[in-house]
Specification:
The structure holds 2 protein chains of 2 kinds.
Chain A: H1 3-30, H2 32-35, H3 40-60, H4 62-68, H5 71-101, H6 106-137
Helix pairs in contact in A: 1-3, 1-4, 1-6, 5-6
Chain B: E1 4-5, H1 7-13, H2 18-25, H3 29-36, H4 44-54, H5 58-61, E2 62-63
Antiparallel strand pairs in B: 1-2
Helix pairs in contact in B: 2-3
The chains are: A mainly alpha, B mainly alpha.
Chain lengths: ~140, ~70
Amino acid sequence: MSAARLSLIWSAAMALFGIVFWLYAALTLLVPAAFAPMGFMLAILGALLVLLMVVTGAMAGEANVARAWDEGVEHDSNRAHRFGFTVAWIVYLVAWLFLSRGWLTVDAAFPVMGAVTGGSYCIFMGMAGLRGWHDTRHAPD
Amino acid sequence: MTLVTHLTERRKAAGLTQSRLAEKVGVSRKTINTVENRVFVPSTTLALKLARELGCSVHDLFELPDEPEAKQ
């Protein structure tokens, strides 16, 4: 597997997992009784993402992994961390407001905060990777 | 922080594609593309590797925008 393909798989997986995390958060807000007890699913999903990255990385080889997660991706990762941190501050403040008003239970608030924060990092990384793939694909080599 | 870059000209003069140069210095083509388009400022290590592969100095590839000889 080439570095370009590995990078594409990782980016698509991150975007997909990020969307699933955000969907879970939205569903938990809408139907807390049904989805809040399923917070453990986030840990399983996160572990699946790591497993996918490890398995595909092992298939591609060390050199391709180094190229697929090079300093350009590290740069994107730093930006994704900043984005996730900013989103976390906003979500935590909103959750605190909702909790103080009794509009949200503690059992539902924690999975939502975790899912939105983790999902933000994944979505940013996925979008940055897919955009880079798209831009590079259409740029003259 | 942006840099004036002559990477594209130097790469083409060396007869290399973005993919080939990326392979030689151990990064993705996307990273070379973003350096050439001034989206991303490379590390000192990557700049040195690029200069070594293209047979020139780092200063031939990158310049600060306020330097008098900066042409871009």
